[in-house]
């Protein structure tokens, strides 16, 4: 079990609302003839912190990427914050502006400074005046505890610092939902904690979060629900205590026995 979560978590703001943030119904996706997501049904309420786990190749990244339309589904329905994901580009832009995404590889622009990475989308997509965008960026860089790196380039930062910049960059667009796809799996162990701490703070502030991660300490401390996927399906889901103590399916048991 991961030891990354050491500090006490403040759960007072981590309440789940009745309002639905994401609704996925009977959703299917194929890559060519390969049926990658099968009849996925999922309701995410505002304020939920969901951890998605499962073996490599089970469709976790594809599912996350469908939610902000980096991938297109072929049947069923995905509704994000009341907006249905269809081929209508207007809808896609609206959804992307509400949903932040952080990847395993930080995907920062190497030729731009940290500050420029954080202000690029607000200035060019949101038409925010430069000075205001910079103020907002500095606010979030302080939040992820690296304001002093603002004028450096990504290559001058550690992996953990770069990932915190990636989180700050997402937050600059004021998303209502944050998607994380294995945000710590490319990091050295000593940097994992600083990124998880940033994610914990976000959770404590009430952000709706979907995190693909194998950091089971994080799942236990922060998630209100853990979803296990295998072969393109949601096999099992439960609150973390029950999920880890009492997994139901053989596939979940096998998976947990391999990672815990
Ligand atoms: P996970 O994130 O759980 O490891 P992925 O969603 O990345 O799984 O991938 C699920 C399956 O889809 C894997 O078998 C993978 O090889 C396949 N796959 C992923 N992306 C593509 C793609 N662009 N084209 C074809 N197959 C893909
Ligand atoms: Mg993946």
TrEMBL record:
<dbReference type="InterPro" id="IPR017871">
    <property type="entry name" value="ABC_transporter-like_CS"/>
</dbReference>
<keyword id="KW-0378">Hydrolase</keyword>
<dbReference type="Pfam" id="PF00005">
    <property type="entry name" value="ABC_tran"/>
</dbReference>
<dbReference type="InterPro" id="IPR027417">
    <property type="entry name" value="P-loop_NTPase"/>
</dbReference>
<keyword id="KW-0067">ATP-binding</keyword>
<dbReference type="InterPro" id="IPR003593">
    <property type="entry name" value="AAA+_ATPase"/>
</dbReference>
<dbReference type="GO" id="GO:0015424">
    <property type="term" value="F:ABC-type amino acid transporter activity"/>
</dbReference>
<dbReference type="InterPro" id="IPR003439">
    <property type="entry name" value="ABC_transporter-like_ATP-bd"/>
</dbReference>
<protein>
    <submittedName>
        <fullName>L-glutamate ABC transporter ATP-binding proteinL-asparagine ABC transporter ATP-binding proteinL-glutamine ABC transporter ATP-binding proteinL-aspartate ABC transporter ATP-binding protein</fullName>
        <ecNumber>3.6.3.-</ecNumber>
    </submittedName>
</protein>
<keyword id="KW-0547">Nucleotide-binding</keyword>
<dbReference type="InterPro" id="IPR050086">
    <property type="entry name" value="MetN_ABC_transporter-like"/>
</dbReference>
<dbReference type="GO" id="GO:0005524">
    <property type="term" value="F:ATP binding"/>
</dbReference>
<comment type="similarity">
    <text>Belongs to the ABC transporter superfamily.</text>
</comment>
<dbReference type="InterPro" id="IPR030679">
    <property type="entry name" value="ABC_ATPase_HisP-typ"/>
</dbReference>
<dbReference type="GO" id="GO:0016887">
    <property type="term" value="F:ATP hydrolysis activity"/>
</dbReference>
<keyword id="KW-0813">Transport</keyword>
<feature type="domain" description="ABC transporter">
    <location>
        <begin position="22"/>
        <end position="256"/>
    </location>
</feature>
